[in-house]
Structure formats: structure tokens, C-alpha cells
Amino acid sequence: MEGIQISRVRRLGRFMKKDHIKLPWLAFWLLRHVLPRQDFIFLNGSFEDIYENLVHTEGRFKARIWIWREILKSLPGFLSAALYWRMMMFRNDFIMTLRNIRKHSLHSIINIAGLSLGMAVCLLIFLWVQNEFGYDRFHGNRNEIAQVYSEKQYSSGSSQIFMGSYFPLAKVLKSECPEVIDAVRYEFATGLSLRRGEKQFMNDIVGLADPAFFDVFSFLFIKGNPKTALEENYSVVLTENMAKKYFGSEDPIGKTLTLNNELDIQVTGVIENVPSQSSLQFDCIAPYLLRFAPDFKEPEHWGGNPLETYILLHKNIDHVELEKKITSIVEKHAQWETAKVTFHLHPLQKKHMYSPQGGGIIHSLVIFSAVALFVLFIACINFMNLSTAKAATRAKEVGVRKVVGARKTDLVRQFIGESLMLSLITLVIAIVLLAVFLPAFNELLSKQLSLRLLFKPVVALGFLGIALFTGALAGIYPALYLSAFQPRRILRGLIKPGVKSSMRKSLVVVQFSLSIIMIISTVVVFRQMGFVMSTDLGFNRENLVVLRMSQRTQGQFEPFRNDLLNHPQVVSLTRSLQGPWHIGSTVSAVDWDGKAPDESVNMHWDYVGYDYFKTFDMEIIEGRAFSKEFPTDQKEAYIVNEEAVKLIGMDSPIGNRLSVFRNEGKIIGVVKNFNFQPLYHQIKPFVFMLRPDTGSLAFVRIRPENISGTLEHIRNIFTKFEPDSLWDPMFFNEILTRYIYTSEQQTGKISGYFTILAVLISCLGLFGLAAFIAERRTKEIGIRKVVGASMKDVVFMLSKEFTKWVLLSNVIAWPVAYFVAQKFLQKYAFRTNIGPEIYVLSGLAALGIALLTVSYQALKAARANPADSLRYE
Amino acid sequence: MKAFTKKEEQILLAIYHLGNEAYLISIREKIKKYTGKYYSVGTIYAPLNRLHVYGYLTASVEKPDASSGGKPIKYYRLTKRGYAALEAIRKQNELMWKGFKSPVFED
Known about the structure:
Chain A is an alpha+beta fold.
């Protein structure tokens, strides 16, 4: 009781003293945010008056109800008042923007052209990045799937990562790791043929996978049961397209296809076509065991093979812990002899972007995002420079606006608003440009990006975001610069803004530095590509035709070979299992006399046919090549490269014992070192084994004369032996550019285009600036000419300044470009020499282009009649 | 001259009649006295603000004193333009009302 009374007294006391009541805080807050600042204070006062009266007469409760009714009823009025003025300002700003665009048409064209090119580049890269990040998103278990790969450590201290896995791994993981829900093997097999009656197609990608494949990955079934589709050994699941190709409108379920002309397999399911944004690409999936048909006996050994093992984990499993566990489990089973093997997990979500062996598409994405931003930034610099250069024409406007009461923030808002509006106009043009660029870009990257993606909210928002970002980036500096003028000095004509600006100079220098860096980087990429394509690989790669033989021709290699050789221009012919553009397979089971028992080594190897060294023009520096005169060559002869000799450590290796894959033999020859891998890698020890009956690759050495005639001959023979196959011969160099150095090709071309754009946009800006400077100095030039300056003097005078800027840019660009070039070349074990002449020439090229741009304006100014120019202003 | 809305007309007239005592609340009371309609603060505020910005009214801020309870008050007064506007409105009205006569209904 007492407590209540005291509090009432206190409250009364406060009431009496202050003598007025404040509005409820929420009402206060609302008014404050809705009303314009200058009116809030009065209206708040009015409301408080009324409220106070009501509290006295009607009581607090009624007053409160009343005030809320009043405020809610007033809100539309307040809002309309606020919006009304916003709209008026917006209309005014909009008209000003359009007027400015029209008034300074040259500058507007330069700005809009540059910005839309820059923006188009950014949109393009954004589309691409967005696409690459969308890979493998359609799997329901995408966060719980990982690929298991291994890393081998050798006693030499080096290690190697193998994505290829082991036959028993999946089974062991599933039964011994409680963290693993399911484990499946997957392998995509190429060169298998499928046939249905008369219908046969080559080049279908046949995926081989364990039955649980469809439990782990989410490929949607149209027909059939995903649980049981791969249970039966002779079964196959087709994609929709495949089903259509072979069965047309028939129901394929239960029908039979023939694999490699020997195995009949039954269609048990049809799935939707594999999305293009999937790392696993296949046309059909057959049970993994089909590999071991007809007895289906799985090998139990722990040797590396070209299959992949994927595991499905429970949620929130610590990968590092599991990796250790897998390593120790496998160690128990496999009993490795020498090399130490550790296992790692590669999450499916990362599979497309990163490669455990280093590299991955993420690097290209980062590089090109950066380059696209550079191009955009260069365009933004144009906008900044031209806006500030034109400041004199807008200074009066700023002065007047300020005098009639605009605050600095109002002006900043106005100018930023202008540049945002411009950037939205630009966005429309950029999207049109994008539509023009897209097909070429798609072809370059073999992608299927389309403008239809614009309907995806992420993309639409991204585009809008890029446009607004551009507007803000380009507009912020001019807005701050223009809004800072003091009206008193402007309006009295005391200062002429925009005439001199060190900021502008530095921005031009930045622009040209970026351009020069891009020029040099592009030249370096192309130089290295040229080097890669022309350097001596240790064999002759010119006029070497590569053919892929199907199983049938492989069995009839001798007649095939004889028919081909029956032409004057065909020099020689051989076969091998792997192509020396990238031989990845290695063997650790190597032994020789005098090898330390605990020494773990690793040799690359290949099975080759007769005439291999002759066809490739490889030099045998010791001993001899494989020969038919020595029938034992097929079993016990090895040819090694110099690197292998170094590893073995013998002075005269010929005739010495060597065992590979536990097969005893002798070294019969030493071949000069040659590059059997892309030039990223050093040359490693290599051993050749003779297997005249294996290998699906045929290499044909032809004479350089009348190549098309020779190809015609090869074609005739090839189609005779392979009536069903596609005739798709390739030259060795073609394989290198198309399959091995694809990323260099893409990088080179894209950066080439981007560099051209960057230089073009920079020059546009320079053109505008030169026009501005020539105009500003019209009178000066007139006077100079009157007192006897020649045209040459005037042109020189005007170009001098720009020359200084570009030269300064060179000084800045060279160290950066050097760094970039080193970074790029670093991944190559064999690289071209980048001398200083490349830097100097690139710099001179930039200077030349810049001077060419400026000279138009300079000549125009120099040719003007002084009589006209002196009357100017 | 732009056309005025009924509300604007009422506000201008109320200010005229209030003389030196025209501020938002008193204007509202005055209009209520004439028409019986009690506008909300916001409904008055929007047109009032507009009229002010377009120059039909001037505003002066009275320093807070005891009579106003310590709160500043914004007083409005008609400008020359404001008077001209009222004049024009009256002319328009007279033109429109000229010869108006209600017929005699027989019921």
C-alpha cells in the first residue's frame, strides 16, 4: 500500500514540475521520421499541445487513443507531402541529366560507350562466374558427398596426388567406417560402342557405377526404379536423349543393347538428361561389375586404377578426422610395401572449382573477374575525368543551387543520382552488347550461357547491382568535387574550376598503367603459348597424325598398318596405349640391381608398338630400339629415358637387369629425354615396354608434301577398317591446343579481347580530355600562331603533356607486369624468356596509340585559323 | 494561375480571417467552425506546406515563451501572391455562381 502511494506522489511531483507531457515515444519516433526536419519541431509542438490538453481533460488513456487516431489519419497527408517534394526533385534531376547528356554530346557518347563496354564485360564475367558456381547444386546430398583421393609420398621426398582410386576401397569404407553411409565407384569409359540391331553410335559416354550410385547422387528417374536399376549385372540406365536416340518413341524398359559387340545389356531405367552443370557427365550408366564380365570376379589388389570413389557421409562429419581414419584402415588392408599413402576427401561442392592437384577453374574466375573490374574501372575513370573537366560549366549551377539553400548533401545526392541514372541507361546498352558478345564467348569457353538467365532473380539482381555499383563508383568523386565549390567565389568569377587537376592526371596515369599491364600480360601469355607450340619436346611433333582405333581395328592392327604404309607419303606408323601429350600413369613396382630395399621410386611408363621411336623421331642415345629381330623384346626388354638412368645411377645401363610390374627384363636402350607431359612438369623417369598388340592410339608420320592427299589415303583405309566410327583425325599439335593447353588458349584470347577493350576505353577518355584541353587553350594557341608558332610546335606542345603521363604509366606498370608475368610463368617448368624488349615495346605501343588519339585533337586545334580562335569566348 | 483545390481555398481563407493568429492548429479549428469538418493534422499540413513553398504564404517562427507552453510555433500570413490567389478564387467563384438560382421544387 505504501509503495503505491509513494510512487503516485512521485509521479505527480514530476508532472507538476515539468508542466508538459511528452508524446508517447513511438508516436514521437514516427513523426520524427516521416516529417521533414524543418517542420517536425512545429508539428511535434502542436501535437504535444493537443495531447497535453487531452491528458488534463480526458485522462491519459483517452488522450493516447486520440493521438494515435490523429497520427494515423495524418500519415497519408505527411507522406504525400514528403513524396511530393521528392518527386519534384527527382523530376528536376532527371531533366537536368538529360539536358546535360544532350548538351555535352561528345562527352556523353564517350562516357556511355566506355561505361557500357566496361559494364558488358562485367556482366559477361558475372554470368560466367554465376554459372560456374552453380555446378552440382542439384544433388540433394551435395553437402555430404565427397570424393576420396590419395597422395603418395616417395622416399625422395616428393609426393604425387592420385584422383584414381582402388577397386576394394568403396567396399572397405562402407563396411568399416560408421561415418560413411554409402560408397560408390564411378568410372567413365570412352571408346565403348553401343549397338541396337543396326543402330550403332560411337562416342557415347558410358558411365560405370555401383548400384548405390543413384542413392548417393540425385539424377531423376523418368522410368524405372532407382533402388534396383543397377542391381542386375547386365543392366543399363539411359538418359532421355540416349533413349530417344536408340529407341525413338518406343518404351525402352526391358529392351536390349549390345555393348562392344559382345555383351547384351537390358535397359532398366531412363533418367532425365544430365544437367550441363554437373561434374559427372555421361549418356548412360551401367553396373560397375560389368567391367569384369562374364565371371564378375573383382580384383582385390590395391593398385591404382582410373576409377573414382565417392562417399556419402552423415551430416557434420569432420573431414580431417575421417581422412586419418581412412588412411589407417586402408593401410591395414593394403600392406603397402614402400611408398606411404595418405587419403583425403574432396567435397563434391568443390569438385568443379578446385582440383586437389592444384589449379582448377577458380583461378581463371578470379583473374577474369579482376580484369573485368579493371576494364570497368577504366571506364569509370573516363566518367570522373570528363565530369570534373567539365566542372566549369556546372559550377554556376552549383553556386546558384547553394545560394538558394541546397546543402552539400543535397548536391552530392543530385550528382550521384545523375550518375546512377546514366548507369541505368548504360545497363540497357550493356545488355544489348552482351547479347552480341555472348555467342563468341560461349564458343571460346564451350559454355551455353544465354540471356534467358536474366530471368533468374540472382542474375537480374546481380546486373542491377553491377549497374548501381558502377554509377556510385563513377559518380562519387565528381559529386564530392562539384559540390564542394564555394558559391561566393564561383559566382563572382574568382575561380574557374576544373582547369587544373592533379587528380585527373593521376587517374589517367592509373588508366594507362592498367592498360599497359594488360598489354604486357597478354603478350606474355601469347609468347609462352608460342614457346609451348614450337619448343623442342624431344621428338618431332610436326606432321604427326593421331588416330583413335576401336576395339576392332586394334585386333587387326597389322593389316591396318600395312595398308596405311602402302602410300609414298606415309613414313612410318606405330601404336601406343597413351599419348605423349600427357602420360600420367606411374609404376612403383620397379627394381634393379643395387636398389636400396627401402627406396620407393616412381616411373612413368607406356606400352608401345614397333617403330615407336622412328615414328616420333626420338633419339636413342645408347643401345637400340625395340625390334622384330629380337622376339624376346616383347617380354623382357625395357627402354628408359636419361632421367631414369640418373635415377638408377648406372654409368652403362645397357644390358642391366630391370624389373617393372615384377616382370624381369633388361635395359636395351636409352632414349633422350623428352616431354611426355605438358610443360608444367619437369621431365621424370620413364620406361617403355613393347606391346605390339595393345593400345588404341595410332600415330602416323607423314611427309610434309601434299598433306591433304595423304590424309585422304588415311581416311580411306580408316573407314575401310572402321565403317561405324567418326573420321576425326588430329595432328599432334592440334591435340595440344585443343585438349592440353585449353586454359592457356582461353586465357590468351579472353585477355586479348579485354586488353583491346581496355585500351580502347582509355583512348576514348584521352580523346575527350584532349578535346577539352584543346578547347580550353584555343585562345593561347591562336596567340602562339599569330606570333609565329608553326603547326608542328602547337601539336608538339599539346602532345607533350600526354606523353609525360603515358611514360609515367609505363614506369608504374612495368614492375607490376613483371610480377604478373612471373606469377603466370611460375607454373611452367619450361618457360619462354621474357626480355625487357617486351616491356619497352608494349609501353611504346601504348604511347603510340595514345599519341595517335591525341594528335587528332591537336591537329584540329593547330589548324584552326587564329582569327577565329581569338574571337572565341 | 494554377487551380486551387477546395482545401487550399479553405486554408487560405482561414488564414485570412485569423490574421496574426494563423498556425496549424488554429487554422484547423477555424475551418471546423466554418464547415463543421474536422481535418486531421496531416490533411491540413500537406497543402499548407505546399502553399507556403509556392509563395502564397510566409511563415514566421515565434520564439517559445510561456504562453505557448515552451514550444515554438510557426505562424503563417498571406503574401501579396496569396491575396491575389484569393482574389482570383473569388472571381472564379463569382463567375461560376453568377445567376444561380435554385428552382422551386414542389413536393
